[in-house]
Amino acid sequence: xFLDLGFKSVTMDDLAKxxxxxxxxxxxxxxxxxxxxxxxxxxxxxxxxxxxxxLATKELHPIDELFEVRQIVRRFLKNEKxxxxxxxxxxxxxxxxxxxxxxxxxxxxxxxxNIRRGIELGVYRDDMNPEMIFRLYFFTxxxxxxxxxxxxxxxxxQELIFQxxxxxxxxxxxxxxxxxxxxxxxxxxx
Length: 190
Hints:
Blueprint: H1 2-5, H2 12-19, H3 23-29, H4 33-57, H5 62-76, H6 84-91, H7 93-120, H8 130-144, H9 157-172, H10 175-187
């Protein structure tokens, strides 16, 4: 409900009705709505992070791996209609900062590994600063979900994310990597 309707829009009464329980029961587990939002978002992020960690153990081709992360996030946020990132930033700024910091550390490990493997396989250039590339990727990705920067009336979020991956790979790819990307795009037309 938070992803569909928004953190601010959903009331404790709405949640109690949806769950077919009393508000008193909800309050026996969560001291207030802010606590419930925190637990819900931390659980969702933890679940997504665990899926990404599991993906990393498969040692896919580095370019495939980037698109697979997109699929993981898409699977968990598929019904998102309310720009949860923007709402967290606006209404729960301390929680937003905590989640962003946690995502930064988790994605840093994942993307640095992805970059190193891409260099080893000769699909990513070896003349770049991996830390800089990671930060460019992460912070640009994060801004894609900001409706003030990328209004939904003008941009489909999923298409933005897809194009962001392509943009990223083309910027760091060798000729071998660029050829792999083009083959990937032909085989995975959306």
